[in-house]
């Protein structure tokens, strides 16, 4: 069986990942260090993610705003932990004008140096918190529930497209509440929104849980994440939700008069997901023929490729395809109108077919002269590309039958991809009882070890640091302590031997 | 008649403009020089603009992409005119890390200076052109039709919210074509998209035309604009479309093999509109009670305010309002579901009523106990707030009658606002025949002179410079030469006395 990509997952997973991005026209290097160009197919997936997630963010009572790209240095100086966490990797604007450098080029104008340098936002807690301090006076002003879709910049040394880029696109929600309980409930509510979104729309099964202390967002009291299982067994943190307590409110003076007339600090939260999710979609659903996009987030769900031969009959084929496109576009699938494209670009039909397979369009329909004569279409499902004998599974069926079943087929593909992801996640998590077993599980040379699920005593301080050092030596991190645990059975912590209080997932990660 | 704003248009138009922004909760100063915070109601209007314009941009065959925020200095050095036009006002990133400054604060790390400074994009021709040079090899790759929704930064010295801010949000379309004719046609097609959008969605009548040579985009062969008439008689350039010829293609090496196998330079275009449009909406539709948002771009089209009195009957009022909200949300108006909000925030009904009037919600419905008892509602139309006797025009009508007519009422408000804008534009343009008349028209002390429409000979070079100096002395600019002129009648150019070739509009502008 020959595949459409130049490299298979098994041969070199990292090279395969890059080849999917290139062959599916998702993105490319921009020539600007660490920044990518997101091409139409990749950006189309992001637009679908935005639309579907934005609907959910609004349905839970949040409103969108927009805050400045630039943050004055002094804003960062107020929250010490936050600075420590971010100061190492920020782009700093120091000048506001260019002048000729005398060598035929340009340089920053020494006469146009900013009095206070500006940081390009790596995240917006500081600037949004400053706005909250203006907006919140009384308990009546709470809760404040806002969200922003924006670009942010973190000066990463090693970048990888979608997964870790200097500039990336995301949404960041920020809320302020009258009580810690309410803020904690908000933190978990948005984590649940992310879980439902990842599973329903991205067909990506995730584990929701709390991050250990050492993996908390700088300045947070508690950080929760959704963790997804990639096909190489590594974890992808696909979204986070932070309970910030009064840490940021205290640094930014977000105070309100409560019903009894006393001044109190607000409790705040923040939560975000980014274009990183697209990296997750690639590594969960891609195969050796390219990407496979879940129908809910596919820019085009059905692509019609007419098989033209520069013959007089071509016009009849195009007309037939146009009618079919209209019939499909009039359907509703998964709660929305079907997105059907007729691909009339000047290229060979086989090139176009494989182009759409690599892009991962859920259904590709080919129409040739024989199909038109018989009132048929030839249908390829991206999630089941090959027959058992290894040949391409292109099925001829009456056009009417396709139109009648297209919506159900899209729903079936969507749920099938989720089922596959659920199965893969479960199959790649192994419960282990002691440290020796963990070491053996992640020994050098073991391919695709997945994650392990172990008991721990939730150590803190120096004891936690020692644990982190031990797992770091195996290139591992604690992903999270899954929510909904019914309590830990009797065994000891695999690290400390002390009585365990919960189970945590440990694995390699992106 | 007492109005909701602290200042009237007549008393001080500039102060009135700021007060609308503050009182309607559209935006506020951020504390970061020249950057604003766009608040939910302002951002909601921008989201509506994005959705409606994006549909049109896609319907004309364009796809969305995303390009880097940062542009290396060297990219700018390639297109000389472009650099001259933008180099004076760009934010420059020179460092990628902060370190303690030894005085308890932070400073850019001298050890983390970038080898090549990065400019925060003021516009993306250079970085997108570089991508085009990779994408375009053959005539088969053309046209390339893409668009980007993004933030851009221009270091303006004097800023004014929405109209001129250091950072602003916009869309920028960029296309490459095989021929100059095709590129020119694209430039005009997108200008027409902007005109239709401004009139249909913003209810803002605009004049489409070509900018004079001195007002062209830096590096463009021709620049076209849509110009709108503000209530103070000033012009607002609300969108531009540029034919770039081969200027950028030459600087960025966008070449293709034509059907005969020869290498040719592509012709490119770019076009954009920004959050500036919201400033236009304010100054076209606002009045002394605040903003008046055209229904198509109103985040909420109908707002229901229950008049509660902390009495047992309150629950019945809320239930009645909930049912009404559902009935309205099930309607379709102007081609979309009606956006109806039930405002249950803890505040007095009169405060809420005036809050929504100031925000400019098209229809505000108040419901009190008497309305519930009679099966009625009290309806306020934002576009006709007062009766002839100067009292608030709140009309009691049966609830069923309101639901039956709400969609038609929204359409009527939308078209009424456009008609008013068309009338205002026409009434404020005066045709004049000679320079003395122009001088008299714009003499000091004349309030609201609007624009004048004059013949000119389309001078170039030094002759044009002289014309620009003359009108600059009167604080005027040439707005554009309207499209669709049927040729100029016999009279001479008001500036040069030479035979005129076309008519141009001249006025003061934002």
Short descriptors:
27 strands, Translation Initiation Factor IF3, 14 helices, alpha+beta, BirA Bifunctional Protein, domain 2, five-stranded mixed sheet, 510 residues, eleven-stranded mixed sheet, homodimer, globular, Rossmann fold, 3 domains
What is the class of the largest domain in chain A in the CATH system? Alpha Beta
Number of domains of chain A: 3
Q: Give the total of beta strands of chain A.
A: 27
CATH level-4 homologous superfamily of the largest domain in chain A: Bira Bifunctional Protein, Domain 2
Subcellular location (chains A, B): Cytoplasm
Function (chains A, B): Catalyzes the attachment of proline to tRNA(Pro) in a two-step reaction: proline is first activated by ATP to form Pro-AMP and then transferred to the acceptor end of tRNA(Pro).
Subunit structure (chains A, B): Homodimer.
GO molecular function (chains A, B): ATP binding; proline-tRNA ligase activity
Topology:
Two copies of one chain form a homodimer.
Chain A: H1 13-23, E1 27-29, E2 36-38, H2 40-59, E3 63-64, E4 70-72, H3 73-77, H4 80-86, E5 92-95, E6 98-100, E7 106-108, E8 113-120, H5 125-135, E9 144-153, E10 167-177, H6 180-200, E11 206-210, E12 222-229, E13 235-245, H7 247-252, E14 255-257, E15 263-265, E16 267-274, H8 276-285, E17 302-306, H9 314-329, E18 332-333, E19 336-337, E20 340-342, H10 349-359, E21 363-367, H11 369-374, E22 376-381, E23 394-398, H12 399-427, E24 429-431, H13 435-441, E25 451-456, H14 461-473, E26 477-482, E27 502-507
Parallel strand pairs in A: 3-9, 17-20, 17-21, 24-25
Antiparallel strand pairs in A: 1-2, 4-8, 5-8, 6-7, 9-10, 10-16, 11-12, 11-26, 12-13, 13-16, 14-15, 18-19, 21-22, 22-23, 25-27, 26-27
Helix pairs in contact in A: 2-6
């Amino acid at each position: 069986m020959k595949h459409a990509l130049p490299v298979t997952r098994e041969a070199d997973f990292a090279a395969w990942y890059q080849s999917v991005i290139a062959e599916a026209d998702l993105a490319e290097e921009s020539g600007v260090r660490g920044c990518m160009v997101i091409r139409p197919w990749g950006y189309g997936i992001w637009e679908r993610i935005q639309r579907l997630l934005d609907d959910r963010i609004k349905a839970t009572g949040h409103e969108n705003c927009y805050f400045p790209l630039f943050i004055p240095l002094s804003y960062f100086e107020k929250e010490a932990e936050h600075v420590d966490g971010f100061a190492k990797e920020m782009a700093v604007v120091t000048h506001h004008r260019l002048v000729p450098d005398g060598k035929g080029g340009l340089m920053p104008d020494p006469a146009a140096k900013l009095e206070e340098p500006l940081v390009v936002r790596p995240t917006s807690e500081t600037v949004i918190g400053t706005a909250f301090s203006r907006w919140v006076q009384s308990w009546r002003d709470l809760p404040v529930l806002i969200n922003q879709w924006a670009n942010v910049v973190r000066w990463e040394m090693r970048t990888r497209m979608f997964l870790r880029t200097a500039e990336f696109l995301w949404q960041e929600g920020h809320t302020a509440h009258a009580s810690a309980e309410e803020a904690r409930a908000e933190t978990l509510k948005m984590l649940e929104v992310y879980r439902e979104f990842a599973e329903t729309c991205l067909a990506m099964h995730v584990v929701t849980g709390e991050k250990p202390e050492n993996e908390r967002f700088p300045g947070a009291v508690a950080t929760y994440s959704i963790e997804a299982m990639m096909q190489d067994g590594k974890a992808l943190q696909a979204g986070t939700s932070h309970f910030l307590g009064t840490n940021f409110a205290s640094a930014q003076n977000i105070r309100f008069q409560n019903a009894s007339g006393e001044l109190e600090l607000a409790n705040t939260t923040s939560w975000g997901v980014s274009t990183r999710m697209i990296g997750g979609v690639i590594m969960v659903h891609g195969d050796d023929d390219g990407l496979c996009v879940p129908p809910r987030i596919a820019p085009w769900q059905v692509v019609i490729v007419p098989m033209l031969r520069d013959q007089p009959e071509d016009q009849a084929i195009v007309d037939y395809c146009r009618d079919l496109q209209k019939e499909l576009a009039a359907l509703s699938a998964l709660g929305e109108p079907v997105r059907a494209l007729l691909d009339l670009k000047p290229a060979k039909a086989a090139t176009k077919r494989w182009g759409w397979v690599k892009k991962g369009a859920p259904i590709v329909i080919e129409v040739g002269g024989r199909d038109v004569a018989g009132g048929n279409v030839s249908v390829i499902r991206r999630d089941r590309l090959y027959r058992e004998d290894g040949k391409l599974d292109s099925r001829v069926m009456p056009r009417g039958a396709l139109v009648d079943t297209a919506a159900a087929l899209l729903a079936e593909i969507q749920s099938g991809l989720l089922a596959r992801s659920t199965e893969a996640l479960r199959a790649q998590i192994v419960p282990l009882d002691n440290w020796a077993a963990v070491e053996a599980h992640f020994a050098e040379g073991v391919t695709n070890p997945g994650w392990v699920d172990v008991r721990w005593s939730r150590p803190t301080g120096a004891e936690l640091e020692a644990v982190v050092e031990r797992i770091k030596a195996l290139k591992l991190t604690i992903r999270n302590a899954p929510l909904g645990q019914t309590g830990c059975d009797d065994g000891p912590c695999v690290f400390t031997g002390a009585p365990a209080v919960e189970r945590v997932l440990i694995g390699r990660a992106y």
